[in-house]
Structures
1.
Amino acid sequence: TFSGIAGSDPLDPRAWDPLNLIYAYADIGEGMYLAKNLSYLVLFKATTIEFFRDVGVSPGSPLERLEGLKLAIGLYATRTVQQIDGALLWCSNTESGLKSAYIMVNTKVEEIATPAIRRIFETSPPKYAISFSVCGHSFYVLTSPTAGYSLVYDITSKLWSYWNAFGETYF
């Protein structure tokens, strides 16, 4: 399986140079999601995260893997990744199967899930997320329609809450 990043011609995104390719080989696994944090590209796999930066090399890929920067947490579901106010949030997965929620700000990663939230994720992990800001607060909303819940993390106050929408069990 392919686990890397392929790049197009900068002047014509429809043209793909076969040399403009870099592999994410620090750990076995397929790339699931590609995000940006500061000037880095962040490649999520199921149980790990790898970082790349633009070094402007040509021919070949202008990207370079950051050898010393690899995280042993990955991505559970691609639809849980959200970016808001410079923060990157996601529902994570580890090699042992532990699910949690994390935030990355300026490449600094912090687990935001409490033990109670992790217990909910173990029995019924969220399927998708949304994020938004209102009244000076930024929110990360994780939803599991099958379990009927929406868990909301207030990024500003760093508190979790349960929300529902007008009599529905999830938001």
2.
Amino acid sequence: PSHAVKRGTRYRYYVSQSLVAPGSRKDEISPSTPKWRIPAAALEGLVRTRLVDLLSSSAEIMEACNGAVPDALQQQTLTRAAAMLGQRLQNHGDDGLRRFLTATWTRIDVHPNHLTVAFDRNRLIDALRRDDRDAAPSGAGEVRASDTKLIQPEDCMVLSIPATLQRAGNE
């Protein structure tokens, strides 16, 4: 996130790509493309709530794994690690959330009535396996160079999060 300091208070916010590098992708960005500045706490709160729901649901975790974990014992271990991670994300603040997202997500898109968060299924499974082995709050967030490969469409999982944007300010 970006930030601004006003009268000694630091305000964190996320900025749409079209505002970060205007004109760098002229083919993709039209004048009607929405340009967002969203308070970081609000965005992170929505994402955290949805992730905790996902990680707390054995059915959603198995769906997210998409058959990549056929063994019942491994499935049980993964769902247990997911539930533990969900509890930590709920209780331990933004650091754990950022580490988890850095390790697993590929893209977050903001739409007028919802957010979408795209995850790499393989990175999610790897993060949960590492988290189960490490059993430490920071276990899910280590990103290795081998994790930066381009993901295949079949490995992508998209979460949709209902949200309503409220306009504020004079732009």
3.
Amino acid sequence: TAIVFLVGFGILQLGGVFGTQPGTQRGPSGVVAEINGEPIRYDEYIGTVNQMTRQLEQTRPLQAGEDAYIREQAWQTLVRNKLLMQEARRRHLAATPDEIKMAVRVSPPEFIVQSGVFKGENGQFDYRRYLAELDNADSQVPWGQVEALVADQLPIQKLQEEVVAAAKVSD
């Protein structure tokens, strides 16, 4: 993984991705790297960088030099997720519609919990408000998009559970 990271980071640096004007793309359709033939697109990378930056800025101001660290972490996250998704597909791990709906209901995605949309009077995530909105037929929340993101995450979760279940602890 470290080699993939270094090579990928080098591609981003040498390919001119860092420091380019917003909206410009490199490679075919903005592809900045490929992991086992699957593309990582510039907009996917920038979206991850922006999300990580927003999450950090919600807790404290960004300090000098942290932007480079965030870019590195974003790259590692994208590579790791691509590799995990590929392995989950290789093992034929998928999420059924019922599993997706149950996961959205029982375990709200972290980005929803952190968004503040469902904050209660105490400033914490209000699970009851969340469920009420989930059950609201006239909801303005794009639940289809939430379910799509959960559908992408569940096979990775199943893979991680398989690996942990197969692990043996020695004495």
